[in-house]
């Protein structure tokens, strides 16, 4: 038995400790995502692992917040991987893509892919589903170096660093991915103000992050999880092995449980809106050169074709329908 094949997300609390956690395993859906990319040549193995870890991490991060919009985890690299993106919707639909512009060695560590000169960046964007005019998405950005300027070697380190710097949240993350499974475990100290103080701790302003014994003990257990265990063991076995001495409270979702799944949010309307944004002159010059416009979605490989008649219609309709209006659905 190598675990169930359906992608799963488990959330839990530790009774008496202000610590919460989540475990995700993406399986068939992760393989489906990679298959879509095969037509374009697929990814080198280290890029597959990076994207899988990013997809798992993005699901974990979205599951931890109540947010009606997309969470976008993005790495802008200074090496052969120019950009890597994983995006998760509130229903846990995920998609991911990477732009590889140079040679990636079969055993390339993360820093050699995205942080060669120490100029790589990691950004987390929360993009609300319904934007009111003038509203900007929330975005936090951190460099991929630690406080002493050392390049960070793992995505999990980058995210822990991000959470401390940007959110002042103590976090422990273990991630692993290959071409079959993308999985992750997240342990986080709950913000101390409010209901999280199960052991009667007061939400003290200025409390030193990391000073919490419970969190440190549980994070140490989580960090002992090996990557091969995370890839091959089912969720129940992982949680039991790590936390059998802890009072684990599994959060059972009300109603239909949300399941992580691969889905793309691209559409012909969005591509049309993008073309309208380019402007009539640019679109006409592409048509003059190629005869038609063919836009392929980076995330899922879907092609959207516009012949000269379709293209002309884009700019006729524009007077009745402002570009971008379909975003508000
Ligand atoms: Zn797509």
UniProtKB/TrEMBL annotation:
Q: Return the protein name.
A: 33 kDa chaperonin
- The portions of this protein that span the membrane are none
Q: Which organism is it from?
A: Tepidimonas ignava
Q: Which domain of life is it from?
A: Bacteria
Q: Which CDD domains match?
A: Hsp33 (cd00498)
One GO term in the molecular function aspect is: unfolded protein binding
Q: Name one GO cellular component term.
A: cytoplasm
Offer one example of a GO biological process linked to this entry: protein refolding
């Amino acid at each position: 038995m190598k675990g169930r094949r359906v992608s799963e997300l488990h959330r839990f609390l530790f009774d008496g400790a202000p610590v919460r956690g989540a475990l995700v395993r993406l399986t068939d859906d992760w393989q489906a995502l990679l298959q879509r990319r095969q037509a374009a040549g697929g990814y080198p193995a280290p890029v597959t692992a990076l994207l899988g870890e990013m997809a798992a991490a993005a699901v974990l991060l979205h599951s931890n917040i109540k947010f009606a919009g997309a969470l976008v985890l993005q790495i802008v690299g200074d090496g052969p991987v120019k950009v890597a993106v994983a995006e998760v919707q509130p229903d846990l639909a995920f998609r991911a893509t990477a732009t590889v512009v140079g040679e990636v060695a079969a055993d390339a560590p993360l820093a050699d892919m995205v942080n060669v000169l120490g100029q790589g960046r990691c950004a987390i964007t929360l993009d609300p589903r319904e934007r009111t005019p003038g509203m900007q998405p929330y975005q936090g950005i951190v460099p991929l170096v630690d406080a002493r300027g050392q390049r960070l070697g793992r995505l999990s380190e980058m995210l822990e660093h991000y959470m401390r710097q940007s959110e002042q949240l103590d976090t422990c993350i273990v991630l692993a991915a290959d071409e079959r499974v993308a999985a992750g475990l997240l342990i986080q100290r709950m913000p101390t103000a409010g209901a999280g103080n199960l052991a009667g701790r007061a939400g003290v302003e200025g409390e030193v992050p990391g000073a919490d014994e419970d969190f440190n003990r549980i994070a140490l257990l989580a960090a002992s999880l090996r990557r091969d265990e995370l890839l091959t063991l089912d969720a129940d076995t992982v949680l039991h092995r790590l936390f059998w001495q802890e009072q684990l409270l599994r959060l059972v979702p009300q109603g239909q449980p949300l399941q992580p799944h691969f889905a793309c949010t691209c559409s012909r309307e969005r591509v049309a809106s993008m073309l309208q944004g380019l402007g009539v002159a640019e679109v006409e010059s592409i048509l003059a050169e190629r005869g038609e416009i063919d836009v392929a979605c980076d995330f899922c490989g879907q092609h959207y074709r516009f012949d000269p008649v379709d293209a002309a219609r884009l700019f006729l309709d524009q007077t009745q329908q402002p570009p971008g209006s379909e975003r508000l659905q």
